[in-house]
Amino acid sequence: MLFRFISAILLAVAVSLIGIALEKESLKLKRQVSRQHFQLEVLINSHAKMKLATQRASSPRKVLNSMERGELEVESSSEPALTNRREMPLLQWHLQRTPQQATHQK
Question: What DSSP character marks residue 72?
Fold first, then answer.
């Protein structure tokens, strides 16, 4: 009888210890998630500040003022800018047919 009582108490203690360990792990993971949310908010705020600073720095008024003061170099070219356009191969497939293919398809 004593053996059953002691084994029941040991089982209850073991279950409670496992529960405590699971609770500690759960709280640890919640802290990590909370910290990551905070870091995400900080990064979003930092990104917004940088974006605003970039927009302010590249505003037309600032660029023109910098050009007038001579802080920015203006390069002008008499030739038009070359565009690096890639031709779409799927739209040009009919131009690559051989005369035999064209006759065969008719």
Answer: S
Cβ pair 67, 74 in contact under 8 A: yes
CB 66 within 8 A of CB 72: yes
DSSP-H helix ranges across 58-88: 60-69
Give, in order, the Cα–Cα distances in Å from 89 to each of 7, 83, 93, 96. Answer: 78, 18, 6, 10
- In this structure, is the dihedral angle defined by the CA atoms of residues 16, 19, 25 and 30, taken in order, positive or negative? negative
Over the stretch 42-98, which tens digit does the pLDDT of each residue have?
A: 999 999 999 998 888 888 787 777 777 877 676 766 666 655 555 555 555 555 556
Q: Considering only CA atoms, give the Rg of the chain.
A: 36
